[in-house]
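Incident log, structure service

09:12 report received: a user says their structure output differs between two submissions of the same chain.
09:20 pulled the input from the user's history:
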Amino acid sequence: MSKVTQEVPRTLGALRESSFSEARQVGRGVKDELRQNLICKIQRGDALFPTVLGYEDTVVPQVVNAILSRHNFILLGLRGQAKTRLIRLLTSLLDESAPYVEGCEIHDNPYRPICRRCRDLIAEQGDATPVAWLPRSHRYVEKLATPDVTIADMIGDIDPIKAARRGHDISSELTVHYGLLPRANRGIFAINELPDLAGKIQVGLFNIMQEGDVQIKGYPVRLPLDLMLVFTANPEDYTARGKIITPLKDRIGSEIRTHYPATVEQGMSITAQEAWIERPSPAKTRVPEYLRQVVEQLAFLAREDKRIDKRSGVSQRLPISALENVVSNAERRALRAREDLAVPRIVDLYSALPAITGKLELEYEGELKGGDAVAREIIRTAVGKVYDHYFEGANVAQIVQWFDLGGSLKLDDNVDSATLVRQLAGIQGLMEKLKALGIGANEPDAVRASAAEFVLEGLYAHRRISRSEERGFTAEERKREPREEARSEPPKVRRQFN
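09:34 re-ran on a clean worker, output below:
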């Protein structure tokens, strides 16, 4: 038995008589629409913003409160805190489609037309006025604020050509060429980096928000737009590039602070969601858990490092880009060695420095040392932290002794896994330690090689062994006692003068 689908109304009269009018409440404003759809989602227990992780107990409840209060709001936070993603997901709270007067540039509500053209059309045609349907994806308009944005871009301008062609007076509403803001009518209008917007443009925004009217070329035009306005801003922008004018701040209902992941586990979940790891390749990729933890620790340590500017922040894009680069280096090695499995190693993390240094804004002390040196030190510290998680209190005396007795091992990121495992197996007591990582002797060579290298790098991070670009892993140079230093100095020759 086939299900009969109701025909979508195509005229104003058909819309009034259909169930769409009652079910969708097409006469309501966009803020009421968002509010009611949000209430339904909350009652059903649906995930509100499923791809935004780490904000479930902090940011999301505040966004929900703003929508329930029918507020325009601003997301205030450092770069890489999912501000833009969050506001784009607001479209999921809109109806699947909304009716509007067909041919209208600003998608007028058939029940409450605001532009002169639609008012005249409905007065002339009545119930025969044609109606079209606007999908939710077309009800979102986003603008990146830049200093060169004009009031004509945002609000509109008089179009003399339109006036000449249609024989209208230049002051008529019918001669207006609408800007972005009116074209977002009955939807969500988002502005990224609000402080970068010139002050006079911000004035035009708050006039629309509160009074609903603007002046275009000196002519007053009444535009009671139906909009949800959302903004994003970086706190650094208030002093570095611009500011939000006080009257506009006063008209923004809610100011919501975003933040970086609170825990390494949250950060890892975000990185796993965003990083391009599952990729088509002859070599299958397998990223060890300890390496994911090291990559995530980079961002957490960088955010605490005094040599890195905290006002700029360290974006979540750092671990995402770093992990992608690490996997690519492992993939390149596996392809050259004709291996079926690509497992990243710690050495690949040093090869990913280009994905790290460009995302660090250094203070004066960091500039003196250099971005590359700062990044290497952060990698070393990150490895040490993760190493402690798995091997704290472990007896590694045999491994250290092997190096103290003159052993050395230089690792090459291009060497194949089988060769590297043979080299690592010669280090007394090393391969037995891999059990702490959940890796047994039956694991592939690529997995065992990566794990064993991680153990050596952890010992280097804790200064139990040494490592250099020329010699690789060697014994840690012990500081000699002062007496030994004195004995080792060559005897001083005293000159005698006659």
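09:41 both user submissions now match this output. Likely a transient worker issue. Closing.
09:42 reviewer note: The CA atoms of residues 195 and 243 lie 5 Å apart. Residues 264-475 form one domain.
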